[in-house]
Amino acid sequence: MNFWSTLSTGVSAFTATNLDDMVILMLIFSQVGSLLQRRQIVSGQYLGFALLVLASLPGFFGSLLVPRPWIGLLGLVPIILGLNRLLEQPAEDEAEPTVEPSQSAWASFLSPQTYGIAALTVANGSDNVGIYVPLFAHCTGETLVLMLLIFFALVGVWCYAAYQLTRLPTIAETLTRYGNQFVPYVLIGLGAMILWDSQTLADRGLILIALLIGIGYLIGVGRMLPSQQE
Q1: CA 158, CA 32: separation in Å to the nearest integer?
Q2: pLDDT in tens, 153-191
């Protein structure tokens, strides 16, 4: 592939596999506050996308590293995040807003929020691997480097566009009014869709792993609720 065909292919592949990410990013940016910063969202998005690229790179070398059903297990991440948001909503509504000191760029990158966004990006991008593997398999070394540069540049464009969209009056008002109530259900639905589309639930072994994770989560929540009520 020459420069222009690589450019058009890269832009088309990224757009086709990340259109749904735009909606998720808008919802996440609408939650920016004392507990979630813009830099954490951007860092998490880049980290998650880098992991997707790493999982797809074996296609360039002729083999697949991570089977798609195993990647689909990450669908549990948005489900757990959504359940956490539902459980935390009453406390958030009653609590008064607090202002926390800003973190350094490095501390922000290492924060749990960043890793949470990264995990959500990987979970939502499990279908990306299926497209990127054959795409990378047809690349030479030079075109692969160019393709990756295009992809990572577009991650920044996606984050900027999503953030700017949340600042439009109509969208901002809607997200501010309904975002906190809407986001948990979007996350849970997204996780369920990922588990289904990745055929994770077709494997009995993976079903058992998912059940064990779910049981562990419920046990953890059960232990936390009494302490919160006190």
Answers
A1: 17
A2: 999 999 999 899 888 877 766 766 666 677 778 778 877
Please answer whether residues 59 and 195 qualify as being in contact, where contact means their C-beta atoms are separated by less than 8 angstroms.
no
Look at the alpha carbons of 12, 16, 17, 18 in this order and tell me if their dihedral is positive or negative.
Answer: positive
Interhelix angle 169-197/126-137, rounded to 10 degrees, is 80
Q: What is the mean pLDDT of the chain?
A: 78
Buried b (16+ CB within 10 A) or exposed e, 34-65: eebbebbbbbbbbbbbbbbbebbebbbeeeee
pLDDT reported for residue 98: 41
DSSP secondary structure letter of residue 125: T
The pLDDT value recorded for residue 81 is 77
143 vs 2: CA distance, rounded Å: 8
Q: Quick one: which of 24, 136, 129, 135 has its CA closest to 70?
A: 129
Q: Does the pLDDT value for residue 65 go beyond 50?
A: yes
Where along the chain do its domains lie?
3-202
In 170-201, which positions are buried (b, 16+ CB within 10 angstroms) versus exposed (e)? eeeeebeeebbeebbebbbebbbebbeebebe
Identity of the residue numbered 184: P
Q: Return the amino acid letter for 221.
A: V
**Alpha-carbon distance 53 to 128, whole Å?**
9
Question: What type of residue is 52?
Answer: L
